[in-house]
């Protein structure tokens, strides 16, 4: 009897001991995970601590984050405090470009377009100098810089006749040159700070992919997988980028890392009313004068503008000089006008009077937010493009 009691006490002791060890191990693992998480956050902060800060637009910083795309610069991606700061940076840089070019226009006010263009070339005047200065201060290799170099080489190969714009680097799906100056070669940027954490956004024509940066190694792995789909440093360049299906498939192994794939382009609404439109083309005014035009009409769901529609038009100017087609600093215009409709019901909404911009430039854009989720019908909404008084209109849809 005594022997049985002793054995029972020993067994109870062992059971309690094992149970206590399991509870201790569980608590230890929990504490360890918490420390690891805190360490991960700390290591990300440490990694971004030595960033390069902008004085051109205070608050923006530049760092180097391996995304598998090699550059020659110290930094390859920008950090913005908020998504709104990303949008604000486009507006501020656009204004700096306007001020810089308006000042030069005063010097050439008495010249013809051809004289002004020749003079600008003789003094190496660059219309995008504010963007160049912004990138240089941040020691940043931007998507703009990369595409500009490719586009110069592309233009040098163009001859008379129609140009294949689907091979033009300037037709890349990120169409805004100022926005390109804010993006990495992979069309990426970061939002956040050490206190609130960092989120990476990767832009696509149809939307974006995003994820919280909790670990630098994992962030690199995700970006490498995404940039292996389509790489702007590989030629010929894919101007349309990766599809949503390709992106979703590439990030599937990282779904536990919180990667989200968001489509901001609505589905087509039918045959007579569209709310997501983009088109491009060229128009020859004479054997020695031509333009390349582009327009985009879209719901402004990125970065954070619900209830608005973004309308953008571009006019690029060219002339033949010494037997070669060159970008031409001429008096050009870009804009739009017409009737709009509601995005989903396709009911008549209102009329947009002619809105645009005329400048002596190689390239001019009009970027306008329209209030409401809007769409357009056929034969009622147009983009307008001019060069030296010659005008061309194109139906948006």
TrEMBL record:
Lineage: superkingdom: Bacteria
The protein's name in its UniProt record: DUF4848 domain-containing protein
Organism per entry: Chryseobacterium hagamense
